[in-house]
Amino acid sequence: xxxxxxYLINPDFQISFIKLIMILLIIVIGIFYGANTLLFWTFAxxxxxxxxxxxxxFFSFLMEQRNTMDMIFIWTxxxxxxxxxxxxxxxxxxxxxxxxxxKVFLDEYKANNNQSPLKFRKKDxxxxxxxxxxxxxxxx
Length: 140
Hints:
The chain is mainly α. The chain has helices spanning 11-49, 57-112, 127-136.
């Protein structure tokens, strides 16, 4: 039997965490895109100041380079978004998992005075929390 891993343990926390990371990503990409746009606008302005005609090869080259950079931004944004969402889900799982396990443990303890020690997954964050709770409840 294949054991499926559940990545969305606490949807409220995990989705809000990923949304926050995405907002930061959009801000950073927006700043870089704005700086890139300003750079090409400055080059075009320099061409106009030099008196180049609008159909001059310089402006064609500039537009071609800007289109290339726009495509780079589009692909970078797509790939980065996929990576950030994936990593955000993975990272938030490492935080939400122990909290979920702690809640289940405390509910079981309260319901039938569970005597088995609290354990987190090997790579979860906050392993010291399980140790502290086990010591406090004298479960070792």
